[in-house]
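Hi support team,

I submitted a single chain yesterday and got back a structure, but I'm not sure I'm reading the token output correctly. Could someone confirm the output below corresponds to the sequence I sent? I've pasted both exactly as they appear in my results page.

Thanks,
R.
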Amino acid sequence: MTPGSLRALVRPLRVFAFDPSLGNRHGNVMTLSVAHERLQKGPRGRTVAVTDYDASNRCYYAPVDLDDPAVVMEDGRPPSEADPGFHQQMAYAVTMKTIENFSYALGRRVEWRKRRSPHRGGTAVFESPALRVFPHAMQGANAYYDPARHAVFLGYFEASRREAGHNLPGQTVYTCLSHDIIAHETTHALLHDLRPHYLTPTGCDAAAFHEALADLVALLQHFGFESALVDHLMETGGRLHDAELPPEVEPASGQATRIVAERSQPNVLIGLAQQFGEALEMRAALRSALGTAHDPSALQRRFEPHERGAILVACVFDAFLSVYARQAAAFLRLIQSRNAPLGTRLSREVAGHLAGEAAKMARQFLRICVRAIDYCPPVDISFGDYLRALVTVDSDLVQVDKLGYRDTLIEAFRLRGVDPGGVRSYAVESLRWEPPLRRGRPLECSGLQLDVIHGTDGRTQSRNARVLHAFGEEYAKELQLDPATPIRVESFHPIYRVGEDGQVGFQVVAQLVQRRLRSTRGRRDDGCQIGGCTLIIDMPSGLVRYAVYKRIHSRRRAEQEKEFTEYWAERVAGPYTVAQAGLPTLDFARLHRGY
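Hi R., thanks for writing in. Yes, this is the structure output for that exact sequence:
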């Protein structure tokens, strides 16, 4: 393959790895490669469409043309805080890269849900529109995803004039120049597309899970920034989890810091939205990957979605950084002539090797975290459900856990008080989801037809939906569905996975959802109740590998949901929700204001 043909497969675009406040330090100016596609000015493509309208000033900014030969030859526009064209470029590149990471992890191409388009010739048309991204949507310290408009709105605001950190006091801070904020909002859009009912806060963990997953994706993507990672490992001696980097020059004993080289710097790899946090007088990143200690009682006290979500983020990063630290320490013991511990300054060659291992582990953890969504129930997510999904998906991907991913994940969740619920112990075998059985035999969903190479046509998709619906009705008892409540086939997707033996396997992930008015002692009120199950089906056998369910006809769950809905509306996060179709629904514009 020639360089020219390779260049046609990907589009290199220059971006800030973190945000403009770092300047050129820590590999902050980098080139991000995304899939190549023909673009209209904006840029506007099949999956992402950037529209640069500023609602506060009621104006459009000139759209960038990334297919202009002069721009293509330079790997896009050069990084600049003053160039709206670069702002558009960065918003597009980071959004596309996050979507591509999801596609790789899920084992299928991300296709946005079909939405009703304006009538054409008197007929309603359903299409899969591109995700719209507005780089300068409004003036304000906010950025959010709007499900109704299938759009990401990125704001801009003035930094504090009293304590602005690395920013100039009063300077304009653009959220569209923060990798973390763009990736965070894109993840909200992707998760909503995969699990739309997670916007309904039916329990304490629902909104927190949305925030936690968005933070996890943004933070784990940091470890794909090779230059920043190598520089960090050289300075820290291989340590990834320290909150600060040691100074280039140690101050004299007992002497205060006098020069820049003697100042320690924040660890940008584990900090989220550094510029945004400093601009709001936080003197630090907005959030940290290791923001919570081992406190099993924290979940009983923290209900604000960002604070509660930080516990889940800390669980996953505890596991990731622990696995890395064990491997790095073993490697350094092998190559060093003396028994120098982690923390001794490293050569670039040694740091480069460790960076490769850390990046590989981060990709694996990101893949596990994203693919676990397919192993979660369609409604009412909890941290315990997610732990079981993580363990199950990793067991399916890797049978022999040589590096201890699963055991370390379980221990990190246990130390922070996450109760998986409905299991005998924290053992891997106990946490894994189980297949549904009838008379001791696994269920088979026969009749599904898929064309994973060319794509399944609409007529076959309609037939598959009918097959799944009939299957749900026939095996409602085994799937923990309510036979008296209508079943809706929410979605079904073919996925592929490559086994340890290199063989490609195919599965179908399907969601069956039930919805009804909530009743109390025979009297109906205005609220609604939802339930359902997620099916993982091996193809072409049709064997149902797992059924992950939330019973709609569980009296205990109904009482807990009703109690929580009342508590949510009155105490915990009423300002973050709006009423929609009889249920409180998360409003990201309110939730992200200042966060």
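A quick pointer for reading it: Residues 1-6 have pLDDT under 50 and may be disordered. Let us know if anything else looks off.

Best,
Support desk
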